[in-house]
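[job 4471] stage=fold_predict status=RUNNING
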Amino acid sequence: MMYVLYHTHRGADCPGKDPNMMKELASKFSRESLSEKNVKMLDVFVDQSCMLQQTNRDHYCLFVVEAESSSNLEQLFAPMRIDVRPMIRWPSFPLKGGDEAGG
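[job 4471] inference complete, writing structure tokens
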């Protein structure tokens, strides 16, 4: 099943400022670690203000994952709090250049 996981944090509290937290997250999100939990990271989108370490606004992150169930996703992403939503692909939605998804 595909899931979209949404995370937000205050710019002043960005985990990107903490090298130890970034190491912990890199380890959790490694291909090996995710594979052990039957999770596949399909895509990740990070707010530009997060990458630039801007503190004047909230930061948003969006993770697209494939997993057998959502039951262990919150634990996997801890201490980041996430909103987990099951998703399905919209097969006839037109993509760039007029192509259709999956075609």
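[job 4471] summary: Strands lie at 2-9, 39-46, 59-67, 83-87.
[job 4471] exit 0
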